[in-house]
Write a structure and sequence with these properties.
This protein is mainly alpha-helical. It is built from 9 helices and no strands. It has one domain.
């Protein structure tokens, strides 16, 4: 029978397939953002689940970039993980490398914030403080509009994520920035 997973077990699984500091840091950032949104949106009883989905969302990306969101399903099934978690992780690549459409609010949050956390992180590195703590929505919006800045962060995916959630783009940007600010010290 498939099982839920603890944070320690999720980290162990993640580090089995990921070694680069950048990927591990990104996974932890998305983990914290997902946990923040779980609390903020009334899913506090699912906080560990949301967080672990965030932590494992790029499980296959480092070793299997050409099979991203496909190979992770196989790896997670082999680890006997809950089908709900496998589906959630695979859905964040919808329309890019997966045909699993985000349906639950948690899946939509993951889809919407994955690319966005990368953009916000890159914007933070450009600041004298190297932090999101003093970043304002206005400066984030400016970076978002500059297609040359963090060109690898797909703005269309971020816009689609906001649409799926039924949020204005500015709301998604502001809420995700607030999530990163609230969790930066963790």
């Amino acid at each position: 029978m498939a099982r839920t997973i603890t944070r320690a077990e999720a980290w162990e699984l993640l580090t089995e397939y990921n070694k680069e500091a950048f990927h591990l840091q990104h996974s932890e950032t998305v983990e914290k953002v997902m946990g923040y949104f779980a609390k903020e949106l009334g899913y506090g009883d699912e906080l560990e689940f949301w967080s672990n989905v965030g932590l494992l969302h790029d499980l296959d990306f480092e070793m299997y970039p050409d099979e991203h969101c496909i190979k992770c399903q196989e790896l997670m099934k082999a680890a006997d993980l809950d089908e709900k978690m496998i589906r959630a992780v695979a859905s964040h690549g919808y329309g890019i490398c997966s045909d699993i459409k985000p349906e639950h609010e948690m899946e939509k949050i993951l889809f919407a914030t994955d690319e966005l956390t990368g953009l916000i992180g890159a914007a933070a590195l450009m600041r004298p403080s190297k932090s999101v703590s003093d970043m304002e929505l206005k400066s984030l919006k400016k970076k978002f509009k500059d297609k040359r800045f963090a060109a690898g962060c797909d703005r269309d995916v971020i816009r689609q994520g906001a649409e799926q959630l039924g949020w204005e783009l500015d709301d998604l940007l502001g809420k995700t920035l607030a999530a990163m600010q609230a969790t930066e010290e963790q």
